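User: Let's play a game. I give you a shape written as tokens, and you guess the letters that built it. Ready? Here's round one.
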């Protein structure tokens, strides 16, 4: 049985991964500082409370377990906040991540799965965005991830640290079994906010920007179901265990939906009228982000199971109803 350290395993994506790793017979150790995650979202494995900025703690942890691989989800993820408070993003997403990588190297743990992001691409030069697209992040969040991708390429050459970088487009939805879902505090992501407006936990949803260069003027994103995203991590891990090389993959469904279209589909799924207000553009938001995920499909053999947005929203709605109402 292989042992995987899941850093940030109490968060939205991390908690879904822990459930999937356990179902795939991995032994799991979660390390989380609970700054954004929840202890009760960790459905199994060992739990260690701690922060990757703490080198002593990391050395102790890596001496106590023989990790076969590390998955890293412990990042700050709000584009807008990263523009206002870049230090927070560079300290955690960059400096603390470097710390984790150095401890891995010191303990000869050489398989790493990294949560990267479509935000590394900046304003797209073409759509859909494939892996070869130039990287010009336009906000500190994206840039912190872009730098770590470069660090990983350098660490492979120098220290033989093998990695898979998964560039998420817009992770959304919830565990189809209803046990897990999105619980960011504060919540900033579109789909949970739209559903809060549908359930009445929020008065309205604000559409950020009406004058983007898109058919209806609102931003276009490619939403990917959390379980499909997690599946790609398991496949990436298996690829490394099978002796595969380091790689980067873009993960999305290849279809873009505008903010207004997301709200329309959410109204259909929830059978509620969702009150909206029109707001200004949010700093750091590119107009379109749509993935070309052919590499993940052909090399990882990744097949999304829940590609349609109605299903993604339906699972998030089930979570909103079960957990919050
Ligand atoms: N968005 C919006 N209103 C909100 C939250 C988000 O219009 O209250 C828009 C945001 O500008 C972006 C899209 O919805 O175009 C998705 O944003 P989200 O924060 O969910 O993910 P991101 O694309 O920033 O990773």
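Assistant: Ready! My guess for every position:
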């Amino acid at each position: 049985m292989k042992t995987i350290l899941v850093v940030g395993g109490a968060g939205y994506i991390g908690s879904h991964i822990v459930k999937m790793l356990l179902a795939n017979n991995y032994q799991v150790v979660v390390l989380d500082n609970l700054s954004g995650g929840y202890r009760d979202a960790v459905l199994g494995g060992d739990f260690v409370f701690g922060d990757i900025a703490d080198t002593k703690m990391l050395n102790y942890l890596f001496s106590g377990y023989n990790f076969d691989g590390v998955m890293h989800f412990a990042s700050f993820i709000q584009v807008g906040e990263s523009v206002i408070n870049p230090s927070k993003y560079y300290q955690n997403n960059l400096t603390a991540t470097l710390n984790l990588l150095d401890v891995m190297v010191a303990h000869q743990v050489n398989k790493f799965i990294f949560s990267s992001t479509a935000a590394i691409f900046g304003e797209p030069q073409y759509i859909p965005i494939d892996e070869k697209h130039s990287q010009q992040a336009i906000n500190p969040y994206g840039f912190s991830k872009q730098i770590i991708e470069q660090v990983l390429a350098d660490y492979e050459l120098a220290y033989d640290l093998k990695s898979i970088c998964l560039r998420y487009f817009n992770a959304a939805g919830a565990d189809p079994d209803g046990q897990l879902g999105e619980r960011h505090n504060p919540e900033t992501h579109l789909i949970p906010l739209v559903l809060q407006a549908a359930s009445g936990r929020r008065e309205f949803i604000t559409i950020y920007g009406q004058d983007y260069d898109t058919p209806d003027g609102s931003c276009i994103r490619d939403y990917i179901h959390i379980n499909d995203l997690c599946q790609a991590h398991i496949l990436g891990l298996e690829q490394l265990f099978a002796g595969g090389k380091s790689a980067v993959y873009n993960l999305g469904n290849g279809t873009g939906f505008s903010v207004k279209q997301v709200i329309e589909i959410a109204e259909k799924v929830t059978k509620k009228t969702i009150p909206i207000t029109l707001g200004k553009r949010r700093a750091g938001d590119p107009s379109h982000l749509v993935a070309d995920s052919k590499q993940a499909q052909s090399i990882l053999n990744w097949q999304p199971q829940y590609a349609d947005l109605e299903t993604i929203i339906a699972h998030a709605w089930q979570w909103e109803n079960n957990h919050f109402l």
